[in-house]
Design brief:
heterotrimer, A mainly alpha (311), B alpha+beta (554), C alpha+beta (454), A: 311 residues, C: 454 residues, alpha+beta, MetI-like fold, 6-stranded antiparallel β-sheet
Chain lengths: 311, 554, 454
């Protein structure tokens, strides 16, 4: 398994390259021109702009140049915001998205783990059934329904919390609704995975042994069952990073948060090629990294995997 | 919204020299203006001054919503209205618009003369003009800046604004050298400009950002980065104190500007809000004094806000026909659709922000006699359709109504389609396309009917009528009428204002009555919220609000 | 007992899963039967704006025409009647726009339509009464008959204390007339206008929907009023939300099913080939799947849709392409384990070709897990399509959009608290997704023989 992780680490740049290549082909095959607006622009000027940004060069050359620059950490200039580099735009917007995602992740883990443990410990009782129902509802409600629903209830109807404003990283009241919106589906999934994982491990020999030895039930759960029971949860964190990013597109739209998601959609619409590529690279890197970290964590937590047996 | 490429009429090259009409009135008026201006070029501005000195008790700092992160602050390159506001504060052209009437007032130039054929303009610059860093600003700077705009390598999308100048287009195409172009600076304070043909709005054009001077040496030194705070120097009433991307743009009074003594505002902060809703909240909190946008969903609420303002704008929302496609190759069908469009209902029930229903293509404009156009008349619509041979035996083919993705366009399209279905029995399907693909479809004439809009660039009907010339890049309907083109040439060469006025009305009549390549729907309105304390802001048709007149009342 | 029967028996013992399945079936049936359960989802009544759930209004068209000897143009429900009675508010044409009176620093300013400044406003015109327009667009109290001038001082008795803005409309004075039309087979045979005691016979007349306050059909004495009821409210163009939700469900479900089918087909083909051929090809193909797993597909789908414009084909292919990876893995694993079994060996010894073996023997035998995964894919695809529609990349069918598009519409108009625009389509979608997920979970557990233990 560790080998597999290392192999994946080695192929990560390859995956990114494939991603860049696919995106590159897509954006250049798409109709529309970055320099054409609602009014017909002067064709000479458009030609000059294309030349200035090297868009008149053969595509393979453009691709090679882009990848070369990318390796050196240069994302190129934005076509829409003249004189601003894509790197600058991403550096400006990404922290907001990451911060929101991190808060949502913490909320999701906190709520999901506690509810999941509660369900597993009370397995088969009314509380467990109730939690299962709540969890499955949480899994089924899309972010873009939760978002507007929360915004309406707490923002407009009750008027408790602000909607549609960004007050910086520590504007707590402004963060509550977006982060909760983003966290709910993941909290529900984490709760389900925790409960299932814990139930499985509670049947394992060493846990039963611990119980038989008279270890307190709480200690059994925390010390013996939980580490193994968490393996599926940790494995889920990889795909969850991707989910959080796609979810953030919606949350940024509903709550008007100046994150990278808005920039991504907008850049595709305005055909800002370097910005599209740049955001895709960043998203791709985050998702690949998320998956890798999750796998590594699984390796470290699960002795069965660590010792080379398969999951 | 964008300020636009000049809808330039290239076939006119060289015609002006053969012109016989001297256009004495314009000349006389200009000479009069020039004389007045020479006495004290800024005398007119005295009436804009505050009535008392009360303003001195207040810190003169204003913030406003600058509607999104500026794409650049390079006057030669900007394309948006939001950038244009900031650039007009940092730089100044030969003239500057009157904040109330939009007439050309002395800017860099203290006075000017126009030749008898109305084709040669001689501008006399104010003596002692300096850039904001104190270096001298001469007529040569302006020549170099215009040359920069015309050089293809600059990539100025609105370079064709300068095609009015003799040789301008040929220079850009590489056919002429720069010394053959009609812009010369005989000395440091004189600029002589020769045009192809008389152009009644040329003076107004000299206040346009594209024609403002830029420090060309600085541009050459820093490249695109010259517009950053700390580097940028300008010649306008304000200088750039800070530009923090996506957070704020701060301007402060430029003490070296020639009119600095009259500027009361010390500091102006632009807060970039892409989203009108955010701006609305910032306004409610008192964080900004002015937002030129109101969220669509809050129209009702805004109308009852005492700070809400609304005014007609030089812009028309319309539907265009592809006249090369069935069934709109028949003018009667186009007229039938015009008659079947109930603009009043759309404005009252769908857009609901006080827009003006329009049957003509040119928005209400002083000095223009509007052609009436084809009003809502279901009976006439049905009659025309029958005349065109459509009826129960031969129903209209299915019609796709194309719009670019937006909630507003969608709602209007659905309401209009329902009207055409009801009145004409037409099977109209609305179809959305993402913006860039939609533009492609328009240019290729790959549509049947599509939504469009046009925002005028200057206070003259020509900006609306010129785009429907045969093969104009903005025509995009396939419509072509030699009589219209001829009349357009005639109107552009006409120097007598009254005769020109009649010609323009005839043109509009051809456009919205006889030829009908478009259905005008409504005239845009500018709207927003402005604090009662912010003074020196005047409503006008181009939504231009020069900051140097702003001040904060106690 | 056959595996299918065993599965069914286990599924039967899961009330949640059954309830979920029932919910799905109900919603799907309702959506399928939308044309019978709901009216025309595109029929507008823009003058009404968004009506709350349960509201009703006279069942009339935007424009209603009656001409003797001609077919009547009325709402479909009225066409079958022999006699139609309309109550009509007749008035002079109204002014095109409202006036806004603004009080700032004790100075009155008057703004006309389009925000144009007005110096004098005559509110004493004969035939008109000025009314205040209340928030939401309704006509409020009548204002004094008086001519207003801009400037100080403010007029007495116009503004309430503290009020600084007043929206005013010159409402034409109204005559209420009763129009009676006799119909035979939908053709008008007689038309009479009645005001008070006076009666006139008219040959032809047209009424806007806005002007009609009631429509009744049937013989005198047995008249029945025709009203259009909006069970779950209407949207801003006056379209029925219930109808739009049902028709939107058809789109969402169709997308869910077709895209799932696409993913199943790609997944089966890919997985079966990799699993059956094995060896180097298997390693390469599954390696490719591993690499693709790391690709943020949803972002590519967004790119595809925003770059090339939303179209049905693209949507199916793109969403199907996102989902096939797991399907391919599942099928491959099944095929690998089945390929070693006796019946495959027997088929091979019998001389059957690889294509035949795969299609006839392997694929049918791995359908169980495929069906379960497909059942769980449908809600995911519905969610993804709605997600795309929500960020403005949906595909519309005329003016009908999927649930995602309806939720987006509700969200966009949320600030004015028209909750039903969001709650109705959102609720329908959540119910459907919930049902599908619960059912899919139940099915998965039921297919797993081990699940009998608990």
């Amino acid at each position: 398994m560790l080998n597999a992780v290392l192999r994946r680490l080695a192929t990560a740049p390859l995956v990114l390259l494939v991603l860049v290549a696919v995106t590159f082909v897509l954006i250049h095959a798409a109709p529309g021109d970055p320099f054409v607006g609602e009014r017909a622009a002067d064709p000479q000027a458009v030609a000059a702009l294309r030349k200035q940004y090297r868009l008149d060069r053969p595509l393979p050359e453009q691709f090679a140049v882009y990848v070369g620059n990318l390796v050196c950490g240069d994302f190129g200039p934005s076509l829409r915001n003249r004189g601003q580099s894509v790197g600058l735009i991403i550096a400006d917007r990404l922290p907001t998205s990451l911060w929101l995602g991190a808060i949502a992740l913490v909320l999701a883990l906190g709520a999901g783990l506690s509810l999941g443990i509660l369900g597993a410990v009370r397995a088969g009782r009314a509380l467990d059934h109730g939690l299962a129902v709540v969890a499955i509802i949480g899994v089924s409600i899309p972010v873009f329904v939760i978002g507007p629903a929360l915004a309406w209830t707490f923002g407009l109807w009750l008027g408790w919390l602000p909607v549609g404003q960004w007050a910086g990283f520590f504007g707590v009241s402004h963060l509550v609704l977006p982060a909760t919106t983003l966290a709910i589906p993941f909290a529900a999934r984490v709760a389900r995975l925790t409960r299932a994982g814990l139930l499985d491990t509670l049947h394992l020999d060493h846990v039963r042994t611990a119980t038989a030895k008279g270890v307190a039930p709480a200690a059994v759960v925390v010390r013996h069952a939980l580490p193994l029971g968490l393996v599926p949860v940790i494995a889920f964190l990889g795909p969850a990073s991707a989910g959080l990013l796609t979810g953030s597109l919606v949350v940024e739209k509903v709550f008007q948060i100046p994150g990278l998601g808005q920039e991504f959609v907008e850049s595709a619409f305005t055909r800002d090629y370097p910005l599209v590529l740049g955001t895709v690279v960043v998203y791709g890197a985050i998702i690949i990294l998320g998956n890798l970290l999750a796998d590594l964590a699984v390796v470290m937590v699960d002795p069965r995997v660590r010792d080379g047996k398969s999951l | 919204m964008s300020i636009s490429p000049w809808p330039c009429a290239s076939p006119l090259a060289g015609r002006a020299s053969g012109l016989r009409s001297p256009g004495m009135r314009i000349v006389a008026l200009s000479l009069l203006l020039a004389c007045l201006a020479a006495a004290d070029p800024d005398a007119w501005a005295a009436k804009l001054a505050p009535p008392d000195a009360g303003w001195k008790r207040v810190t003169q700092e204003i913030s406003y919503n600058c509607e999104g992160e500026p794409q650049t602050l390079d006057p030669g390159l900007i394309t948006g209205a939001a950038e244009s506001r900031l650039v007009s504060a940092l730089f100044e052209g030969l003239t500057t618009p009157d904040p109330q009437t939009l007439a050309a007032r002395p800017g860099m130039a203290a006075a000017w003369e126009v030749s008898a054929d109305a084709c040669t303009y001689t501008f006399h610059l104010r003596p002692g003009l300096v850039w904001s860093d104190g270096t001298a600003l001469t007529a040569d700077d302006l020549v170099r800046s215009w040359r920069r705009v015309l050089e293809p390598a600059t990539g100025s999308e609105y370079a064709n604004l300068l095609f009015l100048i003799r040789g301008g287009e040929d220079f850009q195409r590489g056919k002429l050298s720069w010394d053959q172009v009609g812009v010369v600076a005989p000395d440091a304070t004189t600029l002589v400009v020769r045009l192809h043909r008389p152009c009644p709005w040329f003076l107004e054009l000299t206040s346009f950002p594209t024609l403002m001077p830029v420090p060309t040496a600085l541009v050459a030194k820093h490249g695109p980065d010259w517009v950053r705070a700390g580097k940028l120097i300008g010649n306008g009433p304000f200088r750039l104190a800070a530009w923090e991307p996506r957070s704020r743009v701060v301007l402060e009074r430029n003490p070296r500007w020639h009119g600095a003594a009259r500027v009361r505002l010390e500091r102006l902060t632009g807060v970039p809000c892409d989203d009108p809703e955010t701006a609305w909240r910032l306004y409610q909190q008192g964080a900004i004094h002015w937002t030129p946008a109101v969220p669509v969903g809050r129209t009702d609420e805004a109308q009852r806000h005492p700070d809400y303002y609304l005014g007609p704008m030089l812009g028309t929302y319309y539907y265009r026909f592809n006249v090369t496609r069935q069934p709109f190759d028949d003018v009667r069908v186009r007229q039938a659709f015009c008659h079947a469009t109930d603009r009043a209902a759309i404005v009252r029930h769908v857009t609901r922000a006080g827009e003006l229903p329009a049957t003509g293509f040119v928005p209400p404009m002083p000095g223009h006699d509007a052609a009436p156009g084809l009003a809502y008349d279901p009976a006439a619509a049905r009659r025309l359709l029958t005349e065109a041979g459509y009826g129960p035996q031969r129903p209209l083919p299915r019609i796709d109504l194309l719009y670019n993705t937006s909630a507003n366009h969608k709602a209007i399209a659905e309401a209009a389609a329902a009207q055409w279905r009801r009145v004409l029995g037409a099977d109209v399907r609305t179809r959305n396309m993402e913006f860039k693909s939609y533009l492609g479809a328009l240019s290729r004439l790959d549509y049947t009917m599509a939504r469009s809009s046009w925002i005028g660039d200057y206070n003259d009907p020509n900006t609306f009528l010129d785009i429907f010339r045969t093969d104009d890049g903005n025509n995009r309907t396939g419509w072509s009428d030699p009589a219209y083109d001829q009349l357009l040439d005639q109107s552009q060469a006409e120097t007598d204002p009254l005769r020109r006025r009649t010609l323009l009305t005839r043109l509009e009549r051809i456009l919205v009555q006889d030829g009908c390549p478009v259905i005008p729907v409504y005239t845009y309105v500018s709207k927003g919220l402005i604090s009662e304390r912010l003074r020196g802001w005047y409503p006008n048709a181009r939504d231009l609000h020069p900051f140097q007149y702003f001040w904060l009342a106690p | 007992m056959s595996p299918a029967r065993a599965t069914w028996n286990r599924l039967r013992r899961r009330p949640f899963a059954l309830a979920g399945g029932l919910l799905v079936a109900l919603i799907a049936l309702a959506c399928l039967a939308a044309p019978w359960l709901a009216g025309d989802p595109s029929r507008q009544a823009p003058w009404l704006g968004a009506l709350p759930p349960g509201a009703s209004h006279p069942d009339v068209l935007d424009e209603n025409r009656l001409g003797v000897g001609k077919p009547a143009e009325l709402a479909p429900a009225a066409l079958g009647a022999n006699r139609v009675v309309l109550t009509v508010r007749e008035s002079a044409p109204a002014d095109p726009g409202d006036y806004r009176l603004l009080l700032r620093g004790g100075v009155l300013s008057i703004r006309g339509p389009g925000g144009m400044a007005v110096d004098r406003l005559d509110c004493a015109r004969p035939g008109f009464t000025a009314h205040e327009i209340v928030p939401g667009g309704g006509v409020g109290r009548a204002l004094p008959r008086q001519t207003l001038s801009a400037g100080p001082p403010p007029p007495a008795g116009w503004f309430a204390p503290g009020e600084r803005v007043l929206i005013l409309r010159q409402v034409p004075d109204v005559t209420v007339a009763t129009w009676t039309a006799e119909l035979r087979n939908g053709v008008v045979t007689a038309l009479v206008r009645r005001v008070g005691a006076s009666e006139t016979t008219v040959a032809e007349a047209a009424f806007t929907g806005e002007a009609i306050t009631a429509i009744r059909v049937g013989a005198p004495g047995q008249e029945r009023e025709l009203r259009r009821q909006h069970l779950l409210g209407s949207d801003l163009l006056g379209r029925d939300v219930w109808a739009r939700t049902l028709f939107g469900g058809r789109i969402s479900l169709a997308v869910g099913l077709v895209a799932t089918l696409v993913s199943v087909l790609i997944g089966i083909a890919f997985g079966a080939i990799a699993g059956y051929v094995g060896g180097a090809l298997d390693r390469v193909m599954m390696g490719a799947v591993d690499v693709l797993y790391a690709v943020p597909f949803m972002f590519l789908v967004i790119l595809l849709m925003s770059l090339f414009g939303a179209s049905w084909l693209l949507l199916f292919v793109a969403l199907g392409a996102v989902q096939w990876l797991t399907m391919a893995r599942i099928v491959r694993a099944q095929v690998v384990s089945l390929a070693a079994r006796e019946f495959v060996l027997a088929a091979r010894t019998a001389g059957l070709g690889p294509a035949r073996i795969v299609l006839r023997h392997l694929v049918p035998n791995c359908l169980g897990p495929v069906v379960v995964f497909a059942a769980l894919t449908v809600p995911m695809v519905i969610m993804e399509e709605s997600f795309l529609a929500f960020i403005g990349l949906g595909v519309a069918d005329g003016d009908l959009g999927s649930w995602g598009a309806l939720v987006e519409y509700g969200q966009a108009n949320l600030s004015t608290a028209r909750w039903w625009l969001l709650a109705v389509p959102g609720g329908a979608m959540v119910a459907m997704l919930l049902g599908l997920t619960v059912f899919g979970d139940g099915l998965r557990d039921a297919l797993d023989p081990r699940s009998d233990r608990g």
